Amino acid sequence: MTTTTPKVRLAPPPPALMRMINPFVRRILADPRLGRRIDLQVLLECTGRITGRTLRIPVCLHTIDGVPTVFTERPWRLNFTDPAPVTITRHGQVRAGHAVLLHPTPLELGAALRQALDHGATPFELGLKVSRGHEPTVEDLSAITRSMIRVDFDQE
To answer: I need a labelling partner for 31 at 20 to 30 A (CA). Which of 7, 98, 105, 143 fits?
Structure first.
């Protein structure tokens, strides 16, 4: 009996590593001079639904069908079960909005991940590991278990 490893799998950075580097990433993203050099990463700020603490989370913000979207499997995503206020710091600029956890079908999620890749995101930025030389299809990506959070910015 042989087992085959999937050509695409979930591979987010280890939580311990993220706890070490996120304080530095937060400072860089919040700094107008340094933050403008980073395109995909943003600082998402929200209030924890249970603790009431302010969470400042570095995330990659992707545009999917014209909508700012975050992919994650981390527990903080549950803060957006109901729409919740957020602030997004991108390129050192702060914008207010609301975010909500989406419930896509596997095929919708696969199509959204494929669109993020087509728009220049790397598998690493999506928390994925892709076999060398393999171009992930929507069907490959549909097997990935991720959550999607939609961000709607307030009108200025």
So the answer is: 98
